[in-house]
Design a protein that fits this description.
Length: about 425
């Protein structure tokens, strides 16, 4: 049977439309350096995974002001005391000149230490390092090997100082990779430049966002393969520890820097970092660094006009109108708690704004957790977190309580695997459903 030309043309148009739609879904979202940018990382440490939140609060032509917030469980291996929750809140100031040409990456955040560390970047590398890697050459970069409890100065003539704790690595680009990240509440794949090298006998690897105006570190691995597999005796010790999962994961050989760990029975990396969530809605102009296309060598003033909240509210309103439900990843809770962290405020404000625009709307607020911990604990936690969101909207933003209902599902409705940092992060979420 012969196809008529109009039929062929129609089929071709449909194919082109599908191709365009697929291309649209694969467009990499913009991740500008701007006031309001929030980067959430998951770090695998000796006491287990913990999250840190880094937020660009303001910036101008000379400086970028960053807030760092983290919560982790700490314990004394020589004490019988129960582990304690440590909360860290501090600020860092990064010089814009270092974002352009800096060759040192100060990824460690220390209390009681200098806020401005000339010559270093904080949440990624510099434009110069990224360009050198993309050009295919080898480039020297320094990163920090400092540790908690240190009080460091930026005066190179005094001890201890930050620069004494910087170690060098010669990096070479090895691949262009896709890194899974939730960006503005949408799971996506960000393009990154992967670079590898060796430092003090340890192999290291960095994934830098392929964006010269904001080359964020999306992941790193330090001391690749340096954690040895556990021995038979250590395995028995780990089996006993698993009977009490509320205790922190132990470091087994306290006399060794490269010690076995119960969460790595087959061995693994000494230190890792993974960006799991990014909120890139800005409340001020994005940075255009010197030498970038269209940049003009000037970073605009960071005094925003509230655009971030309006943009977030518009996206939320559209999702609820079209799909009747949306997963929210930018509401943050304290460790194993229903206490809302300060960084949740912009999203709570967005929800309140949408509810004021639509006084006839009612929402179901559902809490979801990952699979770490017991079933009943996670179920209770998810219910309490959903209730905390409702309470904040009612008490702080004066939205009527009868417009919300809440529930929790614990770990029973995962979106992804619980075997990876990014998978667990995608499972921890607040779900909003429009019910009226």
């Amino acid at each position: 049977m012969k196809l008529r030309f109009p039929t062929i043309l129609s089929a071709l148009l449909v194919a082109l439309a599908l191709t365009a739609a697929l291309a649209q879904t694969n467009v990499q979202p913009s991740v500008p350096l701007c006031p309001g940018l929030t980067v959430v990382t998951a770090i695998s440490g000796n006491t287990g995974d913990y999250e840190s939140i880094k937020t660009i609060e303001s910036m101008d032509a000379k400086e970028v002001h960053l807030k760092y917030s983290a919560e982790s469980m700490t314990f004394d291996p020589f004490s019988s005391d129960a582990p304690k929750l440590k909360q860290t809140n501090l600020h860092r100031t990064i010089l814009t000149s270092d974002l352009t040409t800096g060759a040192s990456y100060q990824q460690v955040y220390l209390e009681k230490s200098a806020e401005t560390i000339p010559g270093t970047t904080a949440i990624g590398t510099s434009q110069a390092i990224l360009r050198a890697l993309k050009a295919g050459g080898e480039v020297e970069m320094k990163f920090s090997n400092a540790y908690g409890g240190l009080e460091l100065t930026t005066d190179a003539n005094k001890r201890p100082n930050y620069y004494d704790y910087l170690q060098s690595v010669k990096l070479k680009r090895v691949a262009t990779v896709k890194v899974p990240v939730v960006v503005n509440d949408q799971p996506t794949q960000l393009t990154a430049i992967r670079a590898q090298g060796e430092s003090v006998g340890d192999k290291v690897e960095f994934d830098f966002l392929d964006n010269e105006n904001n080359p964020l570190t999306l992941a790193f691995r330090m001391g690749i393969g340096a954690v040895p597999p556990v021995t038979q005796d250590e395995a028995r010790f780990c089996d006993e520890w698993r009977k009490h999962p509320e205790q922190p994961m132990p470091q087994l050989n306290l006399m060794s820097v490269h010690a076995g760990r119960c969460d790595m029975p087959n061995g693994g990396d000494l230190d890792t970092l993974r960006v799991i969530k990014i909120n890139s809605r800005c409340n001020g102009p994005a940075a255009m660094l010197a030498g970038s296309a269209g940049g003009g060598g000037k970073m605009p003033d960071g005094n925003g006009t509230g655009a971030a909240e309006s943009e977030g509210a518009r996206a939320l309103e559209k999702a609820l109108s079209q799909d009747k439900k949306v997963d929210i990843y930018s509401i943050y809770f304290s460790f194993n708690s229903d206490k809302l962290r300060d960084e949740s405020q912009p999203t709570l404000k967005d929800i309140a704004e949408v509810m004021r625009r639509h006084p006839d709307w009612k929402l179901q607020v559902n809490g979801h957790t990952d699979a770490i911990g017991g079933d009943q604990f996670n179920l209770d936690l998810s219910k309490r977190r959903a209730a905390a969101v409702k309470n904040a909207l009612v008490q702080q933003f004066k939205i009527g309580g009868d417009r919300f209902s809440t529930s929790g599902y614990g770990k029973s409705q995962p979106k992804d695997t619980n075997d990876t940092l990014e998978g667990r992060a995608r499972n921890r979420r607040v779900e909003l459903m429009k019910i009226g």
